[in-house]
Design a protein that fits this description.
It comes from Mucilaginibacter hurinus. Among the domains are: 96 residues, Sandwich (Immunoglobulin-like); 145 residues, no CATH class. Helix content is 31%, strand content 21%. The strands form six sheets. Strands 15, 16, 17, 20, 21, 22, 25, 26 and 27 form a nine-stranded antiparallel beta sheet that branches. It is α+β, with helices and mostly antiparallel strands. It contains 15 helices and 27 strands. Helix 4 crosses helix 15, helix 8 packs antiparallel against helix 9 and helix 10 packs antiparallel against helix 11. Bound molecules: zinc ion (ZN). The site of zinc ion has 6 residues, from helix 14.
Amino acid sequence: MRRSLSIAFIAACMFIPAWSIAQQKKYKAAAHPAYSRYSMFSPVKITPQGWLRTFLNYQKSGLTGHIENAGYPFNTVMWTGVVNDKMEDRFWWPYEQSGYYIDGAIKAGYLLRDTFLLNKAKKQVDFVLNKKNPDGRLGPQDLKGRWNRWPYAGFLRSFMTEYAVTGNPQIIEVMQKHYATYKGEDFADELDLANAEELCWLYGITGDVSLLKMAETAYATFKSDHKYRDRDGRDIIFGSDRVPDYHGVVYIELVKIPAILYSYTGKKSYLDEALNGIAKMEKNDMLASGIPSSNEHFNGINEMAGHETCNLATIPYTYGHMLQITGDARWADKIEKAVFNGGIGAITKDFKQQQYFSAPNQFIANFDSNHLGYNNARMAFLPGHDTECCTGNVNRFMPYYIQQMWLKTKNGGIAASLYGASEINAVVGTANVPVKIVETTKYPFEEAVTFEVQTKKSVKFPFSMRIPAWCTGASVTVNGKQVAGTVVAGEFFEINRMFANGDKIAINLPMSVKLTNWPNNGVGIERGPIVYSYPITAKIDTISTDYKKATKDFPGLGLNPAADWNYALAINNVNNVQVIKNSNYTYPWAEGAAPVKLKVPAQQLKNWKLHSYVDTAANKTIYQTSPFPSNRETDGDSKDIELVPYGSTLLRVTVFPKVQ
Ligand SMILES: [Zn+2]
């Protein structure tokens, strides 16, 4: 006990400098927006455990800790100097990519309280914080070209995190000076609009209404002038019926902006626009992975569709804002689905490589096999890709997940919104009593989640737990006794009572198997938040020193199928699906570890083969993932195949043709 107390004390001293007490007179902590149900805790209040902690440690030993292995611009000075980019009209380009990385690294560092990661990220943050440019603008050089303000929106999320942890008033001062060099209209052009988040956040802390006005002006100008939303005839109008056809990353980044404006102004029309913008995107583009079809533009739903890895981060971030603002539990379901499936399924489990494009169905992912367009190697698992955005963004998605597992209410309450083994330290109730809540679970592989309250004195506070929309028959107990009240799927269940030290709240979230229907007579299988895939054994080619964005320790991996994968499912209902549990694993996402597998009857389709064509310039045959054959020729033999969690696979079939 003595030892753990002293560690806690050292940790507190490390991250809360002395001036944090003095600054409280000048600035508030990050404000809870007036029209938002929940807000986030500082990352140092949350301690991930179990596989979540292992995941962040893989980030540390993998790309987040060693991003220079990914090549340009991550092997440059990043935000601590002038990056000599040849693209003279786009000086901002390398800062966008490294800004994503720095934001992910500082959050991972604080969540782990890890000095190595924090030193790497804080070197970048502190340089920008302390560099005094005469005009008050932040950053190492004057960023030029269209969208030159966009990199600030990504990078300055690291400042918001730093402020949440330290309360350093200098962060607010330099950000205010920076934004005072612009007018609202300066942020109207497409991606630049993302800065409205920072403007609103600063308004919440300073009370300076000119900042909120700038954010509203930026959005109004964006809406009123088509030129700010034009990409080769494509357009963004969140509030209309227009089918989304824009660049997916841009759309998903921006659709949260009207919702954020609502959270500070209470103007309902803003929220309606965001809700409509997301609803129509999900209707037209949401894939089995939980990530919308986006290569690079939205591209509709079919068995071949895939997504850009940047959206592993934009979905939990944008949906996280929607969750916090509306308090609607279904946003949390969607975040879990995106992170556990599309997210973890786009990386190697040691976090050394990532895909640029990944897909629910990917039967081959070598250096030539990209069927989603642009550079051939974009579906291969590489440390760094030809275009660098995804390599930056991949560092963010799990820190975003973990930071939104626990949310706070304005009245001293706590909500457990996303599940996973972890601890939260918070002050609760009207008297601000410090408590620790320890969440123990093997979620999403087990249905039981328990919370133990640790407190020096009993305290009354509202404690909410999310009941996922996919769950029927959820139950809640306190100290072993069933809690009165109706537990509703798709809503938060609140217990408002006096909690004493050692109180245990337990929820059980039964996970049933569900079939999902997809175009072209396709079928998928889910159980709780997990999507299931057939894992395809791969033969792996590696490249290292001969490729500029890979190294000997972080090689690029090209995956070729080394076993049959051409299965159609012979199922009409869930009675055909057998659930197999396995408790003998250490890291649940490791290949072959699968804590839960599903056994299903399947038949091979003789006429379903990889698509191939001859590249005459390179004089070789290129193989790619292929669509369902229009005529499904089975060999007549039914056999059982085992499906595993999507996130544990590299090559996979997720959307299956049904046997006709
Ligand atoms: Zn990207």
